[in-house]
Design goal:
The chain is about 80% helix and about 0% strand. It is an all-alpha fold. The chain starts with a helix and ends in a 5-residue tail after the last helix.
Length: about 270
């Protein structure tokens, strides 16, 4: 439903959100005055100000909770991608150390990380994983499963490889789940309703230039907070999203490891 928002550049999204917040804020405040033909007494204005403070505090708590939650989820997803890249790199190192018989598994792992960057990453914006990437991961499992350790050293390395390939499965699953998980709809409804109610109480103010400026400031402030939440709500969607740089750099890292192994040791 919000896909149109995430295809816009950041500056465009900022203009849309802040422009919408300012329009709703001023229209809601001044429109209520004209529609209901309000003639507010001094006592009613004081009551409205007190109620506005209570509602603003309530809305602030809800929005602060939502903001902290989405940022925590964003950083967790970013850290998980770093862990996924590190785990794939460590697994490749183990395969290199294991011996020449692991070269097929090395190639399968290289194909897998390329598929993540090329096939799966664009699909994360839709909260989906790639079937091609899934099959590539299954090939990694199959090729590692065919390896047969023949001594204590290779058995220890093999156990490490099995642990890391299981970690890759878990990290990929978490990445796909994170790509499609956003703030619950009920939290959006509560936050937006509270924000609208806060601005509505401003209709009790006399429409002086200062009060209009104050109401606009409240609307823009709320708009900035909602803009932040929207930008980081889906960590793999939009211009402000987690990139695939660390995953895309893995084939070059694998190549350096291969070259290092092939380099003759000089006394």
């Amino acid at each position: 439903m919000t896909d149109w928002f995430y295809v816009m550049p950041i500056w465009g999204a900022t203009l849309v959100v802040l422009g919408g917040a300012l329009t709703v804020g001023l229209t809601g405040s001044l429109g209520i005055q004209k529609l209901l033909r309000l003639k507010v007494s001094v006592e009613e204005r004081e009551v409205a100000i007190n109620l506005m403070q209570v509602v603003a505090a309530y809305v602030g708590i809800i929005i602060a909770f939502a903001g902290v939650q989405v940022w925590q989820d964003f950083t967790d997803s970013e850290n998980a991608v770093s862990s996924e890249a590190a785990t794939a790199s460590q697994l490749y190192q183990d395969l290199v150390i294991f011996g020449p018989e692991a070269r097929r598994a090395q190639q399968s792992l290289r194909t897998y990380v390329i598929s993540i960057a090329d096939d799966e990453w664009p699909m994360l914006a839709e909260g989906k994983g790639s079937e091609r990437t899934q099959r590539a991961l299954e090939r990694v499992f199959a090729d590692i499963g065919k390896l047969a350790p023949n001594d204590d050293r290779s058995s220890a390395i093999y156990a490490e490889m099995l642990g890391k390939v299981n970690d890759l499965v878990e990290l990929r699953r978490d990445r796909i789940v994170d790509s499609g998980t956003g703030i619950p709809a009920i939290l959006w409804i509560i936050g937006l309703a509270g924000a609208l109610l806060t601005v509505a109480y401003a209709s009790a103010f006399t429409p002086t230039r200062y009060n209009v400026f104050m109401t606009g400031g409240i609307a823009v402030t709320l708009g900035l907070i909602f803009l932040f939440i929207l930008m980081v709500d889906y960590p793999f969607k939009g211009e402000f999203s987690i990139g695939n740089d660390q995953i895309a750099a893995l084939p070059a890292t694998f190549k350096r490891l291969d070259e290092m192994l092939a380099r003759p040791v000089t006394p």
